[in-house]
Amino acid sequence: MGCGLKGNPVSLSAVSDHRQIVQNMKAVSSGDAVILKWDFYNKDTKINYIAIERSEVGSAGNECKDCPRTFERVGQVPVKGIKLENKESNILSFTDKKVVQGKIYNYRLMLCYDSGVCLEGSSTEIKF
User: What is the pLDDT of residues 101-115, one digit of tens each?
Assistant: First the structure.
């Protein structure tokens, strides 16, 4: 469902298996950066890109660890046209260098469709 303001409405049944598109998301610290890696199963060619969003525990709006989070977009990975080349999935990654030692970060991947609709695909947390 959609309001049609950012694009034509998309039926939720058409994207109901969106959480199966990205799997095995991991965050690891590497020097002065956090590296996110995940398996991408390109079964839906209507995905334009994967947006990466970050939330920092303790920042404004994120004071408690178990409270609902506010996220900011920190990057995106284009996926339109990625071919699987005889594989079931591709391993994709994103490096976040705007992190501070001792902080706890939550990351989530948003699957963004041609229609403009973005749905959460996977999430993870790391203490950097």
Answer: 989 999 999 999 888
Minimal CA–CA distance to 109: which of 124, 96, 92, 121?
121
Q: Within 13 Å of residue 96, how many CA atoms lie on the same side as its CB?
A: 28
Give the strand pairing for 90-96 and 33-40: antiparallel
Domains of the chain, residue spans: 16-127
* Whole-structure pTM value: 0.77
Scan for tokens 């199966």, then name that residue: 20
Distances (CA, A) of 61 to 5, 45, 83: 27, 35, 39
- Specify the fold of 16-127: Immunoglobulin-like (2.60.40)
State how far the Cα of 92 lies from the Cα of 106, in Å rounded to an integer: 18
